[in-house]
Design a protein that fits this description.
With 170 residues, the protein is mainly alpha-helical. The chain contains 5 helices and no strands. It is elongated. The N and C termini lie far apart (59 Å). The relative contact order is 0.15.
């Protein structure tokens, strides 16, 4: 029997608009990771070692989120795109500036995932809708963490107390 050079071709199992928005989210997750690495470097440079470790941990979690989206696309026989990453801010005013910008960023990411969930729902793509719901729930937790940290600052928590709080998040 002659050997065949052809590969089995399987149909993509997601609609093009879903593939596109998920690939955009891969780029967003990579950018989030880099944003948190920039914040970690700044915090380390000004002596907030536990805060820096927390932001490095957060950066790694964003890469894990990116990997989940890649795997989802691969599992659905769709093409994932490797994104480029933009430069990120690495200088801030103080810890409050870092936390405020982190919360603002998480709100944008939450909106991105809500848009993915809505598009999936509107497209009658229940699998992607359920997949995106996990991320929406994760975002709610992340926003809450940053709000609580900002609240501690509003209570004039000293640096040692804030560092202890960051350590508890590791």
């Amino acid at each position: 029997m002659p050997e065949s050079n052809s590969k089995l071709e399987f149909k993509q199992r997601l609609q093009p608009n879903i593939i596109s928005i998920l690939n955009s989210q891969i780029a967003n997750e990579l950018q989030s990771s880099q944003i948190y690495r920039g914040m970690a470097c700044y915090l380390d440079n000004i002596g907030w070692s536990n805060a820096s470790k927390y932001f490095m941990k957060s950066a790694d979690e964003e890469l894990e989120h990116m990997r989940k989206v890649y795997n989802y696309l691969f599992d659905k026989n769709c093409k994932a795109v490797v994104p480029c990453c933009k430069d990120v801010q690495q200088e801030f005013t103080d810890i409050r500036d870092v936390l405020t910008k982190s919360l603002e960023h998480e709100i944008v990411v939450t909106s991105n995932w809500e848009n993915i969930a809505k598009l999936a729902c509107d497209s009658n793509d229940k699998t992607t809708m359920f997949f995106s719901q996990w991320f929406v729930n994760e975002q709610i937790e992340d926003e809450s963490k940053f709000r609580e940290l900002l609240y501690l600052l509003d209570l004039d928590a000293p640096k040692w107390k804030m560092e202890k709080e960051f350590k508890s998040l590791l």
